[in-house]
């Protein structure tokens, strides 16, 4: 996992795994379910939501995170 920035004052971590449905990742998500959020899904949609340029990013500098989204990648906050 790679800590990549802050959204709404909370740190955002980028997670990459070969299989998002493996048992270890499911257990990890279950342990942190009450205190954290996982964003898994279409990278294209997540890129648009975060912003692809300075004009449309939701927080200053967060567009840099969208450039890191490729393959089996999710965001953890």
Provide a concise account of the structure shown.
The protein is of the alpha+beta class.
The main sheet orders its strands as 1-2-4-3
Largest sheet: 4 strands, antiparallel
* Unreliable segments of 5+ consecutive residues: none
Q: How much β-strand is present in the residues? A: 15-25%
The radius of gyration is: 12 Å
CATH architecture: 2-Layer Sandwich
Number of domains: 1
The number of distinct helices, counting runs of at least 4 residues, comes to 3
Looking at the structure, the CATH topology is: Alpha-Beta Plaits
Q: What is the overall silhouette?
A: globular
Query: How much is the average pLDDT?
Result: 78
Q: What is the CATH first-level class name? A: Alpha Beta
What structural class should be given to the helix and strand makeup? alpha+beta
Distance between the termini: 12 Å
Strand/helix succession: EEHEHHE
* Strand runs, count: 4
Name given to the CATH homologous superfamily: Ribosomal protein L10, N-terminal RNA-binding domain
**What fraction, in percent, of the residue positions are helical?**
25-40%
């Amino acid at each position: 996992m790679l800590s990549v920035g802050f959204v709404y004052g909370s740190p955002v971590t980028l997670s990459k795994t070969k299989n998002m449905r493996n048992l270890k990742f499911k257990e990890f998500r279950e342990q942190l379910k009450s205190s954290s959020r996982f964003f898994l899904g279409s990278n294209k949609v997540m890129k648009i939501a975060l912003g692809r340029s300075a004009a449309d990013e939701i927080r200053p500098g967060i567009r840099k995170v969208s450039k890191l989204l490729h393959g089996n990648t999710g965001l953890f906050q």
